[in-house]
Amino acid sequence: MDRSSEIREFLRTRRARISPEQAGLAPHSGARRVPGLRREEVAQLAGVSVDYYIRLERGRTQGVSETVLEAVARALHLDETERAHLFDLAQPTAARARRRRPIAPQRVHPVLYRTLDSLSVPAVVQGRRTDVLAANKLAYALYTDFEARPHRERNFARYVFLDEAARTLYADWDRVAGDCLAMLRLYAGRHPDDPQLTELIGELSLHSDTFRRLWADHDVIAHTTGTKRLHHPLVGDLTLDYLVLAVEGDPEQTLTIYTPEPASPSAEALSLLASWTGTSATGPHAREETTDSAG
Question: What is the C-alpha separation between 254 and 234, in angstroms, rounded?
């Protein structure tokens, strides 16, 4: 991806969503030619010259300091995830050497496989580019059998945007699609030169109008907890809370665990799904030690 274009569009879309009043500026009399804040207003709020901010928004970030990026983040009311994304795109001097390290293949630790097998609720290990690295049988029964798919298709973004079954499974598919893309955009800020990422974005852009439209919004998100509402073809409606846990030793690998409210219809439906599909807390599943090819 072109980093200059990425930072330009990210900053443009962020300032377009904030009115002068929201930013604490005096109301402007007369018509405004642009939605949200002007570049001059962002520069004023950040305490930098207009020319400096314009250069930054054009992607000319060489020598930009963390202090300036912090000021711009405050001026644009960026949340923590958006702030981190801005820093990834701008690459302040102190972080550049760290960003240039080659991307190593991801491996799922044997202990993590055993953890998956021990859980009586759906659980998924997700890696870069929303790749599905591993899951227990109940997770495959809930979503789709990623393990039966070719390596490059073991990816949540591909599933959400290109598999028609996902549209019927998710009760709020539009929100899920937006969140999935926003997670992918966040990763793209960290690894813009990842060739598997480039391939994935190209494929999704080619085959999904929704993906192309949402990709232009430049939204980013980092999931930690939330709720999924599903309509499963075997057991009907389920509402599952999820918790995303970081995996020790790999900051770009997470374990997501889905749990129903105790003694709820969703708990009963999940138990029924487990019995119908022959899954259990101790049932083994096939596994592969290395997977970094689903991009």
Answer: 28
